[in-house]
Specification:
This protein is mostly beta strands and 321 residues long. It contains 2 helices and 26 strands. The protein has one domain: TolB, C-terminal domain (Neuraminidase). It is 3% helix and 45% strand. The longest helix is centred in the N-terminal third of the chain and has 7 residues.
């Protein structure tokens, strides 16, 4: 993202190793994995396409890594981006990488290293993305325009062509987004006229956002994910650490149903909740780490990937069934 946004977030580059605490299990990565984060060319292991992959974007060095999930061995390294930010996957396992500074989103096959297609998000600095499970449409939430105006929402029909754009006057800077199982889209960002948080819903087939008031204060907007029954939203730093709140949504009201404090986290952006594994995977941008936490219990991470270069977002690709 552009330098003014980085300054606002207060995140910094560098590799930081997280000390083991609270029973942390160090993540096992293959020999040479640390060096591969800075590799200048894309590569993938021969068996990378066989299992689930956790994709992770590095905003500062233009790279994306994919790890076997849940084991966590490095399987794929993608390079050549200007500033990869958000990441999302569709039901076929294809993965979309949001490139903020390039104003584009690029699709890769599960475990692949050659782009399938790149879509232009002209005039925008895109941040997060999501794929509608009911239509295959691709939604891209934009932080701001390249002219520093309020960011809007771009939706690409069937993840192709030019987007249809939407705006919400209540959101001055867009952040992340997530579809529910019925094709309703939830987005978050900074509230217009303030540095506060705003959550909104674009109903399936609709053209107008419903702005949602939540009963829990959020200091700095982070990622957002539909979690089966509720919407989960991250507060980047919470009370000293990142926190993920779940809200039950009824019309324009969101009621808190859980709060997960992520000890040893900072500047948490787009996370991924694994309901089957009772865990959440979270990048800490300013620590250079991605951690596994018990969910919704929280506490200290049980696994940590270290030595990353401003990790911004994670998403799981399960591949073709």
């Amino acid at each position: 993202m552009n330098s003014s946004v980085l300054a606002t977030l207060g995140i910094f580059a560098g590799s930081v190793l997280v000390a083991s605490c609270g029973g942390v299990e160090p993540l096992v990565v293959p020999n040479g994995a640390a060096q591969s984060h800075q590799a200048s060319t894309s590569w993938a292991k021969s068996d990378a396409k066989r299992g689930a992959l956790l994709y992770e974007t590095n905003g500062n060095d233009g790279s994306v890594n994919a790890y076997s999930y849940p084991k966590g061995t490095l399987e794929v390294h993608l390079s050549g981006f200007k500033e990869p930010y958000g990441v999302c996957a569709d039901s076929a396992g294809n993965v979309w990488i949001v490139d903020d500074e390039a104003s584009s989103v690029t699709e890769y096959a599960h475990g692949g290293t050659t782009p399938i297609r790149t879509l232009s998000d002209s005039g925008e600095y895109p941040a997060g993305c999501a794929v509608d499970p009911t239509t295959g449409n691709l939604a891209v939430m934009n932080y701001e325009t390249t002219g520093r105006g309020p960011g809007g929402l771009s939706i690409y029909r069937k993840a192709k062509g030019k987007p249809k754009t939407y705006s919400d006057s209540a959101i001055s800077r867009g952040w992340f987004c997530s579809y529910d199982g019925n094709g309703n889209l939830f987005v978050d960002g900074y509230r217009s006229g303030s540095s506060g948080f705003q959550l909104a819903e674009l109903p399936h087939g609709g053209n107008t956002f419903t702005n949602i008031s939540v009963n829990q204060g959020i200091t700095v907007p982070g990622g957002v994910q539909w979690n089966g029954n509720d919407v989960a939203v991250a507060d980047e730093n919470g009370p000293g650490n990142g926190v993920i709140y779940e809200f039950s949504i009824s019309g324009s009201t969101g009621t808190e149903v859980s709060a997960t404090t992520l000890d040893s986290s900072q500047n948490v952006h787009q996370f991924w909740i694994d309901p089957a594994g009772n865990r959440v995977v979270v990048p800490s941008a300013s620590l250079g780490t991605v951690g596994y936490w018990d969910f919704p219990a929280g506490g200290y991470p049980t696994k940590t990937i270290s030595g990353l270069n401003i990790p911004e977002a994670v998403a799981l690709s399960v591949g073709r069934k």
